[in-house]
Amino acid sequence: MTPRQQIFALVASVALLVFIVEMVRRRRLREEYSWLWIAVGVTVFVLSVWFGLLQWLTHLIGAVVPVSTLFVFGILFLIVVNVYFSIKISTLTTQVKNLAQRLAIIDHYVEGLRRGEGEEALPKENTDE
Amino acid sequence: MKELLIVIPAYNEEANVAQVIEAARALLPQADVLVVNDGSHDRTAQVAARAGAKVVSLPYNMGYGAALQTGYKYARENGYQVLAQIDADGQHDPAYISEMLALIARGEADVVIGSRFLVDSGYRAPLTRRIGMLLFGTIASWAMGQRVSDPTSGYQALNRRAFCYCANDVYPSDFADADVLIMLHRAGLRIREVAVKMRPSANKRSRYLNMYSFLTPAYYVFKMSLAVFVSLLRKRGGVEGGEEG
Question: B238 — phi, psi (to 5°)?
């Protein structure tokens, strides 16, 4: 790795880390999502100061040049992140659906109360469950 | 103790929903009618309320399955014992509800489907839809070990055990047919069919009737195949548990 490449990788990883920490500090990014990006920043940082590790990894996965090792892991990482987000979105979709249904039903009760139906508008406590 | 709730999911059905409600109320005066207004842009909610139905309005359009499930949740919470679901476009004649409920009352079934194909009712679906129904009907019949002639029918009656099960998180929010039947079967619920005649929908804009041509059929086939496949992979779930969705 040339010093130029090394400096670029160092600057990029430090910039990423600073940006992520700053976003967390401003509460724009929640802590539970930040670890992923901090892990990326740290990995790039470690690989740029410790070239031997990258060479070892390259050898380990049978790649020819270190740069393909970086690309392989970069792409793998992006795939994993996307699957992770899809799972998160699925959870959120279910939660939003349940909330919307709940809201609609409660709205119906409120409407009944407003029309003066009193207790009649509300579900009976303790049905047969 | 409340007995019967008739659930009518409705999306932009101001033209038809009132007639459906009136027909249902005339035939089954003891029943409560609940219209789940699925984010309609027209006056469905007002029309339904004026026709004497209870109305639950979803805050945005959520899909047929999610609208139905809202009805299940409402029925669960309000202690109804049986639930019948019909479409808001006037396609389902409420006259068959009593026959469907009788099967449930005699304890012969937990879920009763109004089938268009049990006897020849003169119903002809578009070719692509017929292929889909045949395919998933065959798969569902095979998975459940009993003949299911019309798995896509939205005309159904469910007892409390069945609709409480459907009120949980595994219920899909878009299409809800063959996969749901397999899921119910594997949960130990008994499913029966009753022959019904359906009328052609009066309203061509009806999304719920035309959803198979409206949403891409390819997506439907993909979604349903996957849903059926994974529902076979899941453990056989009992009805108990997951009561609070």
Answer: -75, 165
Query: What pTM, to 2 d.p., does this model score?
Result: 0.82
What average pLDDT does the segment A62-88 reach? Answer: 90
On whether any CB of chain B is under 8 Å from the CB of A128, the answer is yes
Q: How far apart are the C-alpha atoms of B211 and B91, rounded to whole Å?
A: 14
Pick from A97, A123, A124: CB nearest B62: A97
Enter the tokens of residue A124.
């009976």
Structural domains of chain B in order of their starting residue, each with its CATH number: 4-233 (3.90.550.10)
User: Averaged over B122-137, what is the pLDDT?
Assistant: 74
CA separation, residue B14 to residues B48, B59, B88, B95, B165 (Å): 8, 17, 9, 22, 31
User: For the CA atoms of chain A, what is the radius of gyration?
Assistant: 26
Residues 6+ apart with CB under 8 A from A23: A29, A34
List of chain A residues whose C-beta atoms are within 8 Å of the C-beta of residue B245: 98
Residue-wise pLDDT tens digits, A14-68: 999 999 999 999 999 988 888 888 998 998 889 888 889 989 999 999 989 888 8
Query: Is residue B220 a contact partner of residue B132, using CB atoms and an 8 Å limit?
Result: yes
What does the alpha-carbon distance between residue B180 and residue B245 come to, in Å, rounded to a whole number?
16
- ipTM associated with this complex: 0.83
Mutate to test the interface with B, among A99, A101, A109, A114 (most CBs of B within 10 A): A101
